[in-house]
């Protein structure tokens, strides 16, 4: 939180001055109402009471940043780094001045009827829009630094992670380690290529190595530096073979990184990101990937926001490219639309597939069931309680020789049970 009239060494005293915090989803803004220090010596007491400001409203604005940022929490001899995904600046808002300062009564001038009617419609539209914005505001609860919620969040910021940071790195190396999900610098050195080596390769190989080994999400302005010696037309012509357009940015094709089901599942993720900048957890339940592979795949594309239960696309939308090249943007959008049914059908079938372990257990159960059925059948036959199917018929030749066969069985085998008689008749030679 940055306040232009107050330095970092001065506390905000929000717990004492904060009256209300509001979130406006439509505008994506946060507003904080602070109580004014009217009893302070610096406050002008000579101002008329109706004109005094009783509160001050701070309004948020998003700060864009291209390089990764982190917040460090120093405890004893350990520093705990936490990645920063967004920065909000709070500035004094003048929107509430009209509510506290009375308006001067102005004498209305005669106006044309049409102009007056138009002004009334505009005023009505503005009032309706303001009413919608006010209704859409959500009140938030402020937790002081000494509250249990704040202490719990601070403990999560200082919790020890699973990954060990390599010492002796440059500041940029620490930030890369933090923002890349804990991948070591050794992996980065193996995968990162020098620009001198890249510029000596043909454009196709440059793009392929860059997308696969350096960075998966790229802006067109940055790729133009990579295509030194080639025109924008040549770059756009080659880009279609190695990347897809998502949110105005060029993202490496899944077929260059993965094979088979893994590539299709990554395409499903890119399809969702092409529609929205966030993906909820429940939308990824159909993904059937190893946990480590899934994390690596998602960390290269998005930031995980566990509090909100979603993943947010790493880069902000490149509206400049969409504006400069609307035809290419429409072609890429149509390409996603054409592949959408294929991708969704694949994901649905993937969700219906039985995992290998479950399939093996089902097979073993079926084998056991068949074995048990055979054993029960033999037991029933031995006891003479076997069920003879009504569909079986006896030929004339069998019916003619059957009395003689039964007579020999009763005399020689000395058996009387129907099951054993059936077995002897079946396997004997008459």
TrEMBL record:
Pfam families: RPC5
Protein known as: DNA-directed RNA polymerase III subunit RPC5
One Gene Ontology cellular component: RNA polymerase III complex
Signal peptide bounds: none
Xref: InterPro entries: RNA_pol_III_Rpc5
Organism this protein belongs to: Vanilla planifolia (Vanilla)
GO terms (BP aspect): tRNA transcription by RNA polymerase III
Highest taxon in the source lineage: Eukaryota
Lineage: Eukaryota, Viridiplantae, Streptophyta, Embryophyta, Tracheophyta
């Amino acid at each position: 939180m940055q306040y232009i009239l107050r330095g970092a060494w001065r506390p905000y005293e929000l717990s004492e001055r904060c009256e209300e915090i509001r979130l406006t989803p439509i505008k994506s803004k946060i507003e904080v109402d602070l109580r004014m220090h009217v009893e302070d010596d610096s406050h002008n007491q000579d101002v008329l009471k109706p004109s005094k400001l009783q509160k001050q409203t701070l309004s948020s604005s998003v700060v864009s940043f291209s390089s990764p940022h982190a917040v460090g929490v120093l405890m004893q001899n350990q520093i705990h780094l936490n990645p920063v995904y967004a920065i909000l600046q709070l500035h004094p808002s003048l929107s509430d001045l009209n509510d506290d300062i009375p308006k001067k009564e102005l004498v209305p001038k005669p106006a044309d009827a049409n102009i007056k009617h138009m002004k009334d419609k505009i005023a009505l539209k503005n009032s309706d829009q303001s009413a919608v914005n006010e209704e859409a505001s959500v009140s938030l609860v402020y937790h002081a630094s000494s509250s249990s919620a704040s202490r719990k969040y601070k403990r999560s910021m200082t919790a020890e992670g699973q990954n060990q940071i390599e010492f002796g790195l440059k500041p940029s190396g620490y930030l890369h380690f933090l923002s890349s999900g804990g991948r070591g610098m050794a992996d980065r050195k193996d995968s990162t290529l020098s620009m001198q080596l890249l510029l000596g390769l043909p454009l196709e190989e440059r793009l392929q190595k860059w997308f696969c080994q350096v960075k998966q999400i790229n802006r067109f302005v940055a790729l133009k530096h990579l295509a030194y010696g080639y025109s924008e037309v040549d770059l756009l012509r080659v880009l279609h073979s190695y990347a897809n357009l998502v949110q105005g940015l060029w993202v490496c094709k899944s077929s260059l990184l993965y094979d088979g089901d893994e590539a299709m599942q990554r395409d499903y993720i890119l399809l969702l990101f092409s529609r929205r900048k966030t993906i909820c957890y429940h939308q990824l339940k159909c993904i059937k990937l190893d946990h480590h592979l899934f994390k690596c795949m998602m960390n290269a594309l998005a930031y995980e926001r566990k509090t909100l239960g979603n993943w947010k696309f790493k880069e902000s939308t490149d509206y400049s490219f969409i504006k400069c090249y609307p035809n290419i943007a429409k072609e890429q959008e149509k390409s996603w639309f054409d592949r959408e049914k294929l991708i969704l059908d694949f994901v649905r079938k993937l969700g219906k597939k039985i995992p290998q372990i479950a399939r093996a257990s089902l097979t073993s159960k079926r084998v056991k069931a068949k074995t048990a059925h055979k054993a029960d059948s033999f037991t029933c036959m031995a006891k003479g309680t076997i069920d003879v199917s009504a569909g079986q018929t006896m030929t004339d030749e069998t019916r003619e020789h059957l009395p003689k066969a039964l007579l020999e069985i009763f005399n020689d085998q000395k058996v009387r049970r129907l099951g054993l008689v059936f077995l002897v008749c079946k396997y004997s030679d008459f």
